[in-house]
Each structure stands twice: as structure tokens, then as C-alpha cells.
Specification:
- By secondary structure, the chain is mostly helical.
- It has 2 domains: 184 residues; 65 residues.
- It contains 10 helices and no strands.
Length: 252
């Protein structure tokens, strides 16, 4: 059964390449990939220990998207369609992972964390590249929305599961996305102040909920804010003050 499933996976994801034409059919391609993912997820729900198939499915899905992105014109109406399907794919994979976490149905916890990380990295890179090319002013907002999505997953896991590793993974992902969104949106002193406020909130949250990784991450973010402040031209001093020449008056 496993061999047949892996052959079906390979055949399913190779089909778009074997039947490709000069015209890019975005809706048709992404609808096919979505249906293929739904079918594979149905198999994974029955075969709970086939985590490798899930990992390969996530990788192949975003690989197909990468090939589409290289060929398509991201400045036309296909951009909104692509963004919609990216959200659908992420939701399918994140939903499956959440189900596995809440039901404690996976024995290989290390592989589960790898699957979570792969989905997070791929969706971030996909949305980042898409919005940066078509809607550059909305890149930070898209990153923040993804941050809030992982924050929602964190709350669900925290309330309904005792899986501290999954909680840590979602928390770190949300924190990194928030830091990146801040870096995209703000520059110089505003960025430093924003990071400092975020670090203060993280430190308080870590102490309040007794999660050491939160306040440790807050200290790291404080350090990043300090380094950024030092690297800013005239961040800690003003050249004009050193070049100031006193004016002599009758009193002096």
C-alpha cells in the first residue's frame, strides 16, 4: 500500500509537467494540485505514520508553485488567484498538522517539527515573493497576517494540547514573522523602537506564562534592536555637535 501511494504521489505531481503547454492555465493547474492534496491528505488521515509522504507532498506542492511563478506574469490577474490557492494549501497542511498535534497521532515528533517548519518557510517565501512583485506596499501586511495565523494556531495548541514542542514551534514562527514584518514596514529609529516594544511584550509574556523560550527570545530581540541602533548613522550621537564652533560675543 505504501509503494502504491508513493507512486501515486510521484505520478500526480509529475502530470502537470508531462502535460504542460505554452499557455499557463493558473486556475486549472492550482485546482488540480488542490484536489491532489486533498486526496493525499485523506490517505494520510488513515495512515497516520506516513509522515514522509506528508513531507514530500508539501515540498512538491510548493515546488510546482515555484515553477509556475517562474513562468507566469505575476503582475496580472493571476496574482490574486495564486494568493488564494496559497492560502488554501497552507490551510490544508496546517490543519492536518493541527489535527495530528491535538490527537497525538504521530510518533515521530522530530519529523512533525520539520513538516511544520517546511510549511511555514515555503508559505512565507511564496507570499513574500508574490506580494513583493505585485503588491509591494502590502508585503508587511501579508507577513503580519501570516504571523496572526500562527498566533491563532499557538492559542489552539496551548489550550487543547500538552505538546510543548508544537507550542514552541508555532510561537517562534509567529515571533519571527512579526520581527520580519516590522523590518519590512519600518526603518531606522522607528524599527528599533518597534522591536524594543515587541521584545518588552515578549519578555512580559514569557514571565507571565512561565515559558523560558519567550523571555530568552525577548532578550535576543533586545540585542538585535541595540545592534540596529548602533549601526544607524548618527544613531547614538550627532556629528553636528562635534563640528559645532562657539561664537564669541562681547560677554566672552
Amino acid at each position: 500500500a505504501a509503494a502504491i501511494s508513493f507512486l501515486a504521489w510521484a505520478g500526480g505531481f509529475l502530470t502537470p509537467f508531462l502535460l504542460s503547454t505554452e499557455t499557463v492555465n493558473t486556475v486549472g493547474l492550482f485546482s488540480y494540485i488542490t484536489l491532489l492534496n486533498i486526496g493525499l491528505i485523506a490517505v494520510l488521515l488513515k495512515k497516520r505514520h506516513w509522515d514522509v509522504l506528508e513531507l514530500l507532498t508539501i515540498g512538491a506542492t510548493y515546488l510546482v508553485y515555484a515553477f509556475w511563478y517562474a513562468e507566469a506574469n505575476t503582475r496580472d490577474h493571476h496574482t490574486s488567484v495564486a494568493l488564494l490557492f496559497l492560502v488554501i494549501w497552507w490551510s490544508l497542511f496546517a490543519g492536518l498538522d493541527l489535527y495530528r498535534t491535538l490527537s497525538a497521532s504521530s510518533a515521530n515528533l522530530l519529523l512533525r517539527r520539520l513538516i511544520e517548519s517546511l510549511n511555514a518557510v515555503c508559505i512565507f517565501l511564496a507570499i513574500m515573493s508574490l506580494t513583493e512583485a505585485a503588491f509591494p506596499d502590502w508585503t508587511a501586511a501579508a507577513t503580519l497576517a501570516l504571523c496572526l495565523a500562527y498566533g491563532g494556531l499557538l492559542l489552539i495548541v496551548d489550550r487543547r494540547s500538552d505538546d510543548l514542542r508544537a507550542e514552541t514551534t508555532h510561537a517562534i514562527t509567529a515571533m519571527l514573522l512579526l520581527v520580519i514584518a516590522t523590518a519590512i514596514q519600518f526603518d531606522d529609529f522607528v524599527r528599533v523602537v518597534s522591536w524594543s516594544l515587541e521584545a518588552l511584550a515578549l519578555f512580559w509574556a514569557g514571565v507571565y506564562v512561565r515559558r523560558s523560550f519567550l523571555w530568552k527570545a525577548a532578550l535576543g530581540l533586545f540585542g538585535l534592536a541595540a545592534l540596529t541602533l548602533i549601526s544607524i548613522n548618527n544613531g547614538l550621537w550627532y556629528e553636528s555637535a562635534s563640528l559645532f564652533t562657539p561664537i564669541l560675543t562681547a560677554r566672552t
